């Protein structure tokens, strides 16, 4: 496969620039207004379009479009050989000049190469790179974008859901005492039973309060934060639906009670007693979802030892409206950015921010830090997804006369780390 992929990459690279999707509309005030309103961008873009919008002008929108991507063939080849996972890793835009309202752009794509195989945190994979360029009516380039994805072989993790349509072999016994718990799981909540008389929390659920013997009961919704109280690494015997080794942990919730679950998302050897974990919902089959645990990740950014006097900072609550409005304002109709049920069915926690919006947020933070600056490049490294319900906190830091580092973090860790450069004559 490697030789075939390399030969294919060479052939595609030799093709050079190919016509890309047509830019359906000229650069226009209405789409700019949708974009600035959705992103909360306060800039004055009456004449020029926001540079980070460049890709929006060539987005196909809510229509079927057949292939045409310069990287389609290598991506398909990798798929066929088990590299079925995909995650975008880099997006770098270079702005030759800002485009003006009324201009009709033309777009091209060219293949940029394949590197690999490489061992990554996601599994073994290949990085696939391509470029998109935009030209004006005089065939002068106005912008270029590098886009890179990692195509990887998803590691066989403990608890991977069975093939589509299969039923996970371990099904919970749901009774009168536990139905509220499973109803909660299906609504994305971890519910803890509480005595309606004395208020004592208890888990697992049961008919009677062990403190006051009351049978009146209600529940609270757990915060989803906890620490590993104890755990075992299961190697043997084989358990249907599970691939050893995997971690079975007793997790002490912030609320005080302890629950049993798997700790996924890290190698078993990384798990330790006292490790902060957070709740995730793992889709096991078409009907069953299980509350599980994953490392809580990097703590939220804390104040630096030497606090900057006026840290340029953006704090964006990622409401569903923000995630959906920005996806549509960037003409990105991929369902994982607007359809919660579908996003969850595909195994993600919720709908999440699209990359075109991330570029726009970086631009917004950069121009807030350097008012009046003329952007030359935005180079973005993509990290964890920014899910609806989270908060995106963006910090900027000067890294030279014309360079700014931008970092956007969510509760899971860094969503984006970017380097922004400005034109020198501004
Ligand atoms: Zn009680």
Query: Largest sheet at a glance?
Result: 10 strands, antiparallel
- What's the structural domain tally? 2
Ligands bound to this protein structure: zinc ion
The amount of helix comes to 10-25%
* Topology-level CATH name of the largest domain: Thiol Ester Dehydrase, Chain A
Explained architecture:
The protein has 426 residues and is an alpha+beta fold. The chain has two domains: 2-154 and 310-422, Hotdog Thioesterase (Thiol Ester Dehydrase, Chain A), CATH 3.10.129.10; 179-295, no CATH class. It contains seven helices and 18 strands. Strand 4 (123-135) and strand 5 (141-152) form a beta hairpin. Helix 2 packs antiparallel against helix 5 (320-329). It is globular and about 80 Å long. The N and C termini lie far apart (49 Å). The chain binds zinc ion (ZN). Zinc ion binds next to loops.
Short descriptors:
alpha+beta, Thiol Ester Dehydrase, Chain A, binds zinc ion, single chain, 2 domains, five-stranded antiparallel beta sheet
Give a quick rundown of the structure.
The chain has 426 residues and is α+β, with helices and mostly antiparallel strands.
Give the helix/strand layout:
Elements lengths: L1 H14 L2 E2 L9 H11 L32 H9 L4 E11 L10 E15 L2 E13 L5 E12 L26 H8 L4 E5 L5 E2 L14 E5 L3 E10 L11 E8 L4 E6 L12 E8 L5 E7 L17 E5 L2 H10 L10 H6 L9 H15 L5 E8 L8 E8 L4 E8 L2 E10 L4
Antiparallel strand pairs: 1-3, 2-5, 2-15, 3-4, 4-5, 6-7, 6-8, 9-10, 9-12, 10-11, 12-13, 14-16, 15-18, 16-17, 17-18
The structure holds zinc ion (ZN).
């Amino acid at each position: 496969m490697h030789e075939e992929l390399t030969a294919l990459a060479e052939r595609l690279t030799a093709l050079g620039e190919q016509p890309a999707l047509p830019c359906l509309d000229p650069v226009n005030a209405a789409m700019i207004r949708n974009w600035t309103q959705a992103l909360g961008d306060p800039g004055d873009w009456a004449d020029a379009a926001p540079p980070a919008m460049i890709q929006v002008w060539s987005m196909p929108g809510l229509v079927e479009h057949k292939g045409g991507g310069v990287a389609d063939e290598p991506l398909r080849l990798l798929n066929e050989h088990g590299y079925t996972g995909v995650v975008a890793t880099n997006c770098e835009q270079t702005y030759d000049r800002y485009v003006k309202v009324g201009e009709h752009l033309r777009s091209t794509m060219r293949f940029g190469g394949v590197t690999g195989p490489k061992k990554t945190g996601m599994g073994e994979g290949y990085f696939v790179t391509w470029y998109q360029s935009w030209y004006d009516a005089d065939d002068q380039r106005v912008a270029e974008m590098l886009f890179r994805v990692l195509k990887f072989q998803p590691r066989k993790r403990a608890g991977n859901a069975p093939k589509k349509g299969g039923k996970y072999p371990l099904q919970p016994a749901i009774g009168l005492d536990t139905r509220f718990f499973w109803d909660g799981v299906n609504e994305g909540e971890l519910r803890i039973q509480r005595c309606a008389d004395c208020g004592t929390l208890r888990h697992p659920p049961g008919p009677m309060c062990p403190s006051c013997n009351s049978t009146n009961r209600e529940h609270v919704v757990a915060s989803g934060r906890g620490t590993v109280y104890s755990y075992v690494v299961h190697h043997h015997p084989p358990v249907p639906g599970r691939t050893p080794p995997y971690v079975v942990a007793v997790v002490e919730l912030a609320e005080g009670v302890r629950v049993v679950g798997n700790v996924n998302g890290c190698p078993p050897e990384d798990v330790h007693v006292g490790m902060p974990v957070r709740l995730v919902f793992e889709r096991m089959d078409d009907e069953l979802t299980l509350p599980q645990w994953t490392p809580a990740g990097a703590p939220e950014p804390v104040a630096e030892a030497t606090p900057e006097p006026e840290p340029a900072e953006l704090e964006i609550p990622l409401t569903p409206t923000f995630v959906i409005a920005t996806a549509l304002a960037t003409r990105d109709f991929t369902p994982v950015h607007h359809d919660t049920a579908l996003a969850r069915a595909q195994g993600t926690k919720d709908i999440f921010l699209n990359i075109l919006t991330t570029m726009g947020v970086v631009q917004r933070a950069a121009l807030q830090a350097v008012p009046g600056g003329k952007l030359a490049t935005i180079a973005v490294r993509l990290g964890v997804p920014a899910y609806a319900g989270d908060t995106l906190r963006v910090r900027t830091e000067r890294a030279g006369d014309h360079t700014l580092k931008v970092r956007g973090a969510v509760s899971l860790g860094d969503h984006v780390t970017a380097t922004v450069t400005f034109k020198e004559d501004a």
